[in-house]
Amino acid sequence: MSLIFQSNLHPAGVYGIWQVTENDNYFLEKINLYPAEMEELKILKARKRTEWLSSRYLLHKLSERAIRGACLKDKYGKPYLENSNYFISISHTADLTAIIGSPHLVGIDIQLIVPKILRIAPKFVNVKEKAFIPSEDEIYYLHAIWGAKESIYKAYGKKELDFLKDIEVLPFIFDSNGFFFQGSLKKGDIVQNFTLFCRQFDQIILVYAIKI
């Protein structure tokens, strides 16, 4: 359908959201895939295939490069751009694809607002975080915290993180128009601090993390 949102990061980078209504052929006609990408695509079916194609198309569109670079995965499954100094992250929900790219370590998460998050909150919200969540807006705070931790997890990129113990989000005030806040990852000798941004788009919550 279209690029429904795009914004620059400061000092450098970009992120955007694409609403997917096209079939696979639309994307295949617009991007030339590299052999390694074609092999990865072969094992995907149905919705996963469309998500994969839409993300590669959006990534190239946001890059504004004349020649498209290959989007590959490292040994942990984290996507990266071949021969590029930009870090990237990808997220999908419903019919939307979100992409972020920056010379700094980044992660992005986009999610549909659903009541289910109230039930699973004890799996990812620690005691300190629970203390600053107002009951009247709990569902929005929970989606922001989940998105923050998922984004930090993606930026870290090496898996095996405990969302309760290893990632913490500092207190914030939710603003549907967008707000910055802070979070950190601490695992063994590894300490990483992140600036986070959250914004609501109708029934969608988008969060991204940038390592500082």
CATH architecture descriptor of the largest domain? Alpha-Beta Complex
Mean pLDDT: 96
- The number of distinct helices, counting runs of at least 4 residues, comes to 6
Our estimate of the beta-strand percent is 25-35%
Output the radius of gyration.
17 Å
Instruction: Let me know the CATH homologous superfamily of the largest domain.
Output: 4'-phosphopantetheinyl transferase domain
Query: How far is it from the N-terminal to the C-terminal residue, by CA?
Result: 35 Å
Quickly count the domains: 2
Shape: globular
| Structural classification | alpha+beta
- Order of strands in the sheet with the most strands? 7-11-10-9-8
- Uncertain runs are none
**Strands, total number:** 11
Let me know the largest β-sheet. Answer: 5 strands, antiparallel
The CATH topology of the largest domain comes to: Ribosomal Protein L22, Chain A
What is the N-to-C order of secondary-structure elements (H for helix, E for strand)?
Answer: EEHHHEEEEEHHHEEEE
